[in-house]
Amino acid sequence: MAMNYRDEAPQVIKDYLLYIQNIRGKSQKTVNEYYIDLRTFFRYIKISRNIVDKNTEFENIQIDDISIELIRTITLNEAYEFMDYLISVRNNNAASRSRKCSSLKGFFEFLYDKKHLIENNPIARLETPKKKNSLPKYLTLEQSLELLNSVDGPYRERDFCIITIFLNCGLRVSEMAGLNYSDIRNDNTIRVVGKGNKERIVYLNNACIDAIQNYMQVRPTDKLKDKKALFISRNNNRMSVKTIQAMVYKYLAKIGLDAQGYSCHKLRHTAATLMYQHGGVDIRVLKDMLGHENLGTTEIYTHLSSEQMKNAANSNPLANVSFNKTDTDNDKK
Length: 333
Prior knowledge:
- This protein has helices spanning about 5-10, 10-20, 30-50, 70, 75-90, 95-115, 140-150, 155-170, 175, 205-215, 240-255, 265-275, 285-290, 295-300, 305-315, 325-330; strands spanning about 190-195, 200-205.
- It is mainly alpha-helical.
- A two-stranded antiparallel ribbon has the order 1-2.
- β1 and β2 form a beta hairpin.
- α8 packs antiparallel against α10 and α8 crosses α12 (about 265-275).
- It is elongated.
């Protein structure tokens, strides 16, 4: 969703958004999210300080008049009260509050360290809400095979190719939609443009190579609206994120997984989990393959399945040592 923050935001926020986009390399989606977070915060400040009428609709509060003088008066206590407001009024979960906290901390750090517009940074001491460390949801090996076997219809080569790449390479759905014909390289690798326009090279295994070759034999070449696009929709256009998602949901529903919280992102989780659990892939290699900035993000895939934990317990060299009743009985005599 395109945001018109260039018209709505005060100059000091515009400067920050330009900084994180052009210097930090954040994507337009991330820039939009940061702007929404900051807008929510300053709308809250206006209400809590009675700068606007309390009966004013929250979504109608303008922030284009937020000045650096007002920003200099913001306190750490107000930031914590904002976090409480996010829970009690807006029902934000820990992940959403954590992102808003990061947006605030980044903005104030920019004003303090980069622009030197504030003499102290009270938000630096704002603690980030702890997110629930839930394990990622993924398909089992059997479910993955069932999903692949469910592909049919007039676009089966294309759909099979997309799902195969999801399950073997762990691409994000936005990365899949952004693939170009020229990204397939002669050395059996694929060029992927990830978050923040960061490029990485992903190696294709035999399943991916075979699926791509089969798709290329039927890929449309005439009347294309985007000749660069790798995956073509029925309207001869580049397949969008929503189109790919709808296609994946269709096949997930076909094998009975539509109501269980599975999605394109879960296929990314599946690829990572299968490579880690069944392939023994080093977590640092997995980090680069998935395009994660931090190793900590990849560590969610180090969780162990119940079967693995059972096997680990049974592989202990002491696993079969039993209590010797005979010796004990002799001691009692």
